Amino acid sequence: MLFDPRPKSRREEIFDRENELNSLIRGIEGYPMTILIGIRRVGKSSLLRVVLSEFEGLGIYLDARRLYAAGGGTISPVVLVDEIKKLLFGKGRFGFLSGIRLENVNLAGIKLKPKEATIIDVLEVLNGLGEKFGKVLLAFDEAQYLRFYGPRGGKDLLAGVAYAYDSLPNLGFVFTGSEVGLLHDFIGIDDYSSPLFGRVYEEVEVKPFPRELSEAFLRAGFGEVGLKVSDEEIKRAVDELDGIPGWLVEFGFNYWKGGSFERAIERTIERARTMIREELLELEKRSSRYSLILRAVAMGLSRWSNIKDYVEAKGGPITNARLSALLKNLEKMGWIKKESGEYKIIDPLVERILRG
Ligand SMILES: Nc1ncnc2c1ncn2[C@@H]1O[C@H](COP(=O)(O)OP(=O)(O)OP(=O)(O)O)[C@@H](O)[C@H]1O
Ligand SMILES: [Mg+2]
Fold it and tell me: pTM of the prediction?
């Protein structure tokens, strides 16, 4: 059902996204590491799960937020190995396996000793599994939580990934999650000291649906649950919520269950606002200039020089290089886009919140 509020796991449950699914598959086949990016609620987890459910090697889906919780606020090799073992031996709680038929595999021969294991040991064992079963894909959702791996902000895990990238050909990685944390704190997009800096990986971006597709999505969803909704309401909903599937699903679900268009819109916007505010706070923790830039762009200061004037007026001098880097990060994180030299906020809900 399209309006099911949980992440989808099967291709039939997904609306459109053929191209994104294909890019993701090509990334996984062609690169040792793929990063799936896109703004909140756009459908990253769903796409990852669908691709994994069809993956022919051994696909291991891990939710790093759960690993973090299971480890009581840190992720260690013990936690990681423990979870992978549970998945391999059929008692997994936080992830799932796909691909190989595990009943045909003699798992007794697989030794994953958490106590002594380092990340390199773990990855080597998984690479060894790949010799038997084809490629092994380690897919981390909510990957921003991997910064809690070990005492050095996830650097040890990244070093392991970098090692695997160079030396363990059967092993592949996918990372996805909320971009603020993912790009900044874990992978380190502008961090020369990151072990992964400079390595070539594939980046697949999931974008919001364009207008027509958003309307078609709502129509299909309402059709499925047998609710007659006028074109005018469909259009208004897309005006308010834009093309982010998660919000469209939430609105559709609320309307279907509650029966009131207005209330469904209100509730969805309220939820979205709460989530966006939290993210803005996270962003502000990385640099207070991010919010100044976003506010400038939301107010319609779309040109580089106007943004710079605003940021300097409110926050003191900033070098051109620094401002460029911050703008680029905001683009990468899906907050803003640049069209013929003008910056715009991507998500209209974000724009409204920033305008206050
Ligand atoms: N193409 C799609 N077809 C149908 N439903 C979708 C699609 N994309 C996303 N959804 C729905 O939207 C919601 C958000 O999707 P999902 O959790 O996959 O997004 P996400 O990008 O991982 O979100 P988050 O940023 O919260 O992790 C879910 O209810 C999911 O079922
Ligand atoms: Mg997700």
Answer: 0.88
